[in-house]
Amino acid sequence: MNHFILAAIHVLTSPDVIIFTLTYVGLALGTIPGTRLDRSSIAMLGAIAILLFHRMSFSAAMEQIDFGTLALLISLMVISAQLRLAGFYHFVVNKIISAADRPWTLLIAVVGTAAFLSALFANDVICLIFAPVIVVAFKRAGRDPVPYLMALATGANIGSAATIIGNPQNMLIGESGHLSFAGYTLAVLPLILASLILNVFGVALVYRRRIFHPAIITPSPTNNAALAMDDPPEAPDLPAPAPAVQWPMVTKCLLIMGMLLVAMIFGNIISMPRPIAALAAAGLVLVSRKTSPRDLFAMVDWNLILLFVGLFIVIGDAQVHELLGPTMHALKTHGVNLQSHGPLTAVTLVLSNITSNVPAVLLLKPAIPLHAATLWYLLAVVSTFAGNLTLLGSIANLIVAEQSARHSIRLSFTEYLKVGFPLALITTALAVLYFRF
After folding, report:
1. Is 120 exposed, middle or buried (0-12, 13-18, 19+ CB in 10 A)?
2. pLDDT confidence of 223, banded at 50, 70, 90?
3. Number of domains into which the chain is organized
4. In angstroms, rounded to a whole number, what is the distance separating the alpha carbons of residues 377 and 179?
5. Distance between CA atoms of residues 436 and 340, nearest Å
6. Packing angle of the helix pair 373-385, 357-364 (nearest 10 deg)
7. The pTM is what?
8. Is the dihedral of CA 14, 16, 19, 20 positive or negative?
9. Cα–Cα distance measured from residue 161 to residue 173, given in angstroms and rounded to the nearest whole number
10. Are 362 and 119 in contact (CB under 8 A)?
11. Which helix (H) or strand (E) holds 321?
12. Of 10-19, 110-119, 187-196, 392-401, minimum mean pLDDT range
């Protein structure tokens, strides 16, 4: 017993364990009380502590960073930024809004377009562009925008699982598991389509009165409902003017994106790794007579990049010092085998909503064998579907809520649960059945 206690004290007082634990507690909380730290800065502080306390040399820490995933992520952000500056996203949103008098058409269009564009250009970007335009258009019409904001967030999350470039965790999984771009998409596409259908009907069911029998909403300064429709003086009723569509630039970007998809699909045949193909595509986008590269780089989510860098080092240190070995052994001893569909799904669903999906994937990926393609597929889909469980489960959800709040539409935690919670559980259960049979 004394030997066991001394061993436990030794483990708990290990600098590696302390750094790892504090980092993941900070990620779960989203900040450190009394500070303005966010998840990216917490991950970086964890990496800095590892270097500061000589738990890993600088060169060894750099070896833990997956620069291929970072190159892929930055490149796609640059391409998406160019499309945004060229007015492409605003053009698409305005086309969707033109169907405002046809509820089913509008709902399907919001979910379908958000899903399709998220699969190619990442769900965070799509939600950032779509949310304010949807809010303003419906407020002008005196209609409730909340059902369509829910459709936007949940549809973007589900749709982003359709490809290995649809969201950051899928990019990481695609590189770590050496997954085929086309092979992954073909394997999960029926599941994604079925989940999107459930998404449409779920939103329609929960918000059937607001969608099909909408009441005209009039601003009221005393409205204390969950959805406040009045505009405070500091909240502008209109977003920044939409940029005029620059079709030559849009055409160029879409052609480059098309070539990139071809390169990703046939990468093995043409001997071109995905990160290099993505960097080449971003390089072509940067060559422009109208857009400054500085403007494009300013729209890259560097916070997300720093989150990846910090987590790569923190998780790498945990693997080098075998911190997770006893935990994995204990889980297996108690019947929780992460190489089985059910346990992997349950742990991924819970962990993704505690620490967010990127940290969860980084923590779980060492438990999955390299060539176990089905397990990699399941991890990618479930970690993405988990983002629909709560408002805090996905950065895309928070973007929709924050953008809506700027125009006096409050998408509360409990409001989000009405659709997100059952949708996440049903689609996750469907994923387990899909990959099992």
Report:
1. buried
2. very low
3. 1
4. 9
5. 10
6. 160
7. 0.84
8. negative
9. 11
10. no
11. none
12. 10-19
Rounded CA-CA distance 16/394 in Å is 28
- Find the radius of gyration of the CA atoms of the chain: 22
Q: Which residues contact 122 (CB under 8 A, 6 or more apart)?
A: 76, 77, 80, 160, 165, 166, 167, 168
- The pair of three-digit structure tokens given for residue 282, joined into one six-digit string: 């971003």
Residue 18 is encoded by which pair of tokens?
């302390």
List, in order, residues 6 or more apart from 197 with CB less than 8 Å away: none
Mean pLDDT is lowest, of 12-26, 129-143, 368-382, for 129-143
Q: Find all residues with CB under 8 Å of 339, minimum gap 6, and list them.
A: 367, 368, 369, 372, 375
**What letter represents residue 86's amino acid?**
A
State the residue range of the domain holding 381. Answer: 2-436
Helix (H) or strand (E) holding 391: none
Nearest-angstrom CA–CA distance, 202 and 422: 9
Cα–Cα distance between 369 and 415 in angstroms, integer? Answer: 39
Q: How far apart are CA 183 and CA 164, in angstroms?
A: 10
Structure letter (DSSP) for residue 286: H
**228 and 408 Cβ atoms separated by less than 8 Å:** yes
DSSP string, 46-97: HHHHHHHTTSS-HHHHHHHS-HHHHHHHHHHHHHHHHHHHTTHHHHHHHHHH
pLDDT, position 134 = 84
244: left (phi over 0), alpha (psi -120 to 50) or beta: beta
In the DSSP assignment, the letter for residue 227 is S
The separation between CA 126 and the C-alpha centre of its own chain, rounded to angstroms, equals: 11
Q: Say if residue 278's pLDDT is above 90.
A: yes
For residue 434, the Cα-to-chain-centroid distance in whole angstroms is 22
Alpha-carbon span 207 to 204, nearest angstrom: 5
CA distance 248 to 184: 32
Joined together, the tokens standing for residue 69 give: 């995933």
| pLDDT confidence band for 284 (50 / 70 / 90) | very high
What stretches of 300-372 show up as alpha helix (H) in DSSP? 302-320, 325-333, 341-355, 357-364
Extract the tokens encoding 94. 């305005």
- Find the mean pLDDT for residues 321-343: 80
Q: At residue 105, what is the residue type? A: T
